[in-house]
Design goal:
- 31% of the residues lie in helices and 25% in strands.
- It is an alpha+beta fold and 130 residues long.
- The strands form two sheets. The chain has a three-stranded antiparallel beta sheet, covered by helices on one side. Strands 3-4 form a two-stranded antiparallel ribbon.
- β3 and β4 form a beta hairpin.
Length: 130
């Protein structure tokens, strides 16, 4: 009797963990906690810093707020930026500038999982200081 229960338990665990992404419908997306290859801005971190420095149009006269604006956005499989939104802001002018910087970014190199491009959510802090 113990042998039968052991066989049933082993078979059931294979069924529960044996599902693949093929089971997903077209509208569903697999959520992955660990990404094999992270997305990257053209030129890497240094390229992102240069882009932000060159395109930053906020001036001290606009507001006297110091801090960071956190912008959430998606990097699509083709590298385009989509659905950017401020998730933690400072002021209306800072939030608008941070959102503009992100939405006008060039295409990123998308993240990869099993050597295939995947859609990835990013959060980018943009610093405002006098």
């Amino acid at each position: 009797m113990k042998t039968i229960w052991t066989i049933i338990l082993i078979t059931t665990s294979f069924i529960m963990f044996g599902q693949t992404t093929d089971a997903l419908t077209k509208d569903e997306e697999l959520i992955i906690d660990y990404i094999e290859v992270a997305p990257s801005f053209p030129g890497g971190q240094e390229g992102l810093k240069k882009y932000l420095d060159k395109n930053f149009k906020w001036t001290q006269e606009q507001t006297t707020v110091n801090g960071k604006v956190f912008v959430e956005f998606w990097i699509e499989k083709n590298g385009e930026i989509k659905d950017a939104k401020v998730i933690r802001g400072l002021s209306e002018t800072c939030d608008k500038e941070a959102l503009r910087l992100v939405t006008e970014m060039p295409k990123w190199t998308p993240a990869k999982q099993k050597e295939k491009p995947i859609r990835t959510r990013m959060v980018l802090p943009i610093k405002f200081e006098l």
